Amino acid sequence: MMSSHPAVVLDLSANGVGIIHALSRKGIDVYAFDTEGPYSKGKSRLATCGICPSPLNEEEELLSFLKKIAMEHDQKPVLYAGADDYVVFISKYRSVLSQYYLFLYPDHSLIMDLLDKKKTYELALKYNIPTAKTFFVENEEQLDEAITQLEFPCILKPVYGHEFRKHVNKKAIHIQNPIQLKEIYPIYRKFGELIIQEIIPGDNQCFYKVATFFDEDLELLALFTLQKNHQFPAQFGTGAHIVSKRIPDLVDAGVPLLKELALKGVSMIEYKKDPRDGQYKLIEINPRFWLTHSLTGHSGVDFAHQYYLYLTGQRPSPKINQTDGVQWIYLVRYFLTYLEKRKKGEMTLKDFFHGLRGKKVFALFALDDPMPFIRSTTSHLWNAWKRKRRSD
């Protein structure tokens, strides 16, 4: 295998560390960067890691930084991004960065539309994709009107999640009643546009993802589907325990949609199955590697490596047949989810240990690279302890 092209990964969360592990174990030289906070937790011994300027408020500095990194190598590096901020930055400066790096993204306007929950909702309507009942509110009069049509509890979500999380580290705010909504809305509105959405019933196992890798000509080079078992936080969070599972109905629905949208490169669409009508309802579409992508390599698909092979001209064969039943576990988040669900009688210790049986891959735990796991676990447990103290 030709591996003279290095890989550069922007992101040192579990997403980025998963890319590092997938590539470095194939003999590829990996360089990984992030801003100071994530770098301190995620730096890996399997890559040359460092701190980089922020894609949010140091764009020119980051552009110069990346040019310098690329010019240190004889071959163009393959550029990976594990977070929305880096995707937007790379896409925005693609004409310059493409002179130094290999990467594949859809049109910039499509990327920005998919990060905008209003535009994503409009796409769902355009393509007749079922979705949660959604309200867009710009003033108090519209808020009052929405309240008359809402069922409570409901959720308050940012239109631009990556921008909102600069100020508030939440994917969504759970709203119990109209009084709370009227009190909470102006507080969070200061940090960006918001939408109000019904809560689709069903537990964590009602969430599914379809992931694709389309090449420049929109030929499918990788396909993967999965089901969540647990997420953290349990109500509105990210994956903690996932299983590889082929869902033909979602393949039939999701793959043509992503191709129709011309989502070149790696992308993922998330659905939640509504037990009221059995419909899979759109949650979001991401034009990038997603948190649990490291499950794919252990299930016979390996998105990160397919991406590398294609961009370095090695013409990989399509990988569309996956191994089902492989589990992906973010161990500390799975444990904290267990503690949360145990209080509500939704999970027992026996259930927790049962989830550790069978073929599995851990998000961060690795004997050849132990420190990202240790630092992440310490940080999660410390933050959980601080939250408990505040609530006592």
UniProtKB/TrEMBL annotation:
What SUPFAM superfamilies does the entry give?
Glutathione synthetase ATP-binding domain-like
Q: Which GO terms describe its molecular function?
A: ATP binding; ligase activity; metal ion binding
Q: Where is the ATP-grasp domain?
A: 121-312
Q: Which domain of life is it from?
A: Bacteria
Q: Which Gene3D superfamilies match?
A: ATP-grasp fold, A domain, ATP-grasp fold, B domain
Which UniProt key words apply to this protein? ATP-binding, Ligase, Nucleotide-binding
User: Which InterPro entries would you find in this protein's record?
Assistant: ATP-grasp (IPR011761), ATP_grasp_subdomain_1 (IPR013815)
**What protein does this entry describe?**
Predicted ATP-dependent carboligase, ATP-grasp superfamily
Source organism of the structure: Halobacillus dabanensis
The root-end lineage is: Bacteria, Bacillati, Bacillota, Bacilli, Bacillales
